[in-house]
Amino acid sequence: MTPTLEEFIDELLQREQPRLYFDTTVILDLLRPKRRPQSHELLDLARGNKWECVSSYFALMEAFDIEQENLWFRARIGAGEDADLLLRRRKRRDLARQALGRVSVRLYRKFREDLQDFISWAILDDEGWEEALRLAMNTNVRAADCIHVAAALTAKCSLFITSDEALRDLAQEYANLAGEYVRTASPVQALAVLEKKAARTP
Q1: Whole domain around residue 32: which residue ranges?
Q2: Dist CA 63 CA 48 (whole Å)
């Protein structure tokens, strides 16, 4: 029987310090002040307890991509263009270099000032890419998300944190089949359990 998240974290804390992997949804929370506050609180809790937080360059690249697309979409809607048409042509966005630079510099500066000292990078080696390929071949996880799961497994993370519910379920199923000691959770779920456990830890 699969242990609950609380049972898993209980056992984890008896064995080792948690190592958390943050996917793109969490990185975006941390870069956008008004998104889910639980991601900020989870990072603060991890920092206070000296738990390692891990992400990937790919997550940061995806965050830039999403922010650039949002900027482009808002600009085109503001110019009166049709939303359905924009959705069809979003892969050919045409942001000016100045606008690209503005959003990229803002995000990267915030990352360097607020996050860089507290997040380490998972680097995919040949074995990691093989893991991502196996995941892509054997599950319904999207290719981009396969990279996140493989990065978390390569970095030996014990908690895979994402707000993507479908990814949480599929990644957990794959980790169970692969015999990996890892559990997936949303920032809200992980924070609720880890706060309680950390308060009890002497």
Answers
A1: 5-200
A2: 25
Beta bridge partners of 119: 53
How would you write the chain as a 3-class SS string?
CCCCHHHHHHHHHHHCCCEEEECHHHHHHHHCCCCCHHHHHHHHHHHHHCCEEEECHHHHHHHHHHHHHHHHHHHHHHCCCCHHHHHHCHHHCCCCHHHHHHHHHHHHHHHHHHCCCCEEECCCCHHHHHHHHHHHHHCCCCHHHHHHHHHHHHCCCCEEECCCHHHHHHHHHHHHHHCCCCEEECHHHHHHHHHHHHHHCC
Give the residue with greater pLDDT, 113 vs 12: 12
Q: Is the pTM for the entire model greater than 0.90?
A: no
Supply 19's token pair.
């190592």
Q: Which residues pair with 55 in a beta bridge?
A: 121
Confidence band of 84 (pLDDT split at 50, 70, 90): low
How many separate domains does the chain show?
A: 1
Is the Cβ–Cβ distance between 12 and 3 less than 8 Å? no
Confidence of residue 96 (pLDDT cuts 50, 70, 90): low
CATH number, domain of 192, equals: 3.40.50.1010
Higher pLDDT, 98 or 184: 184
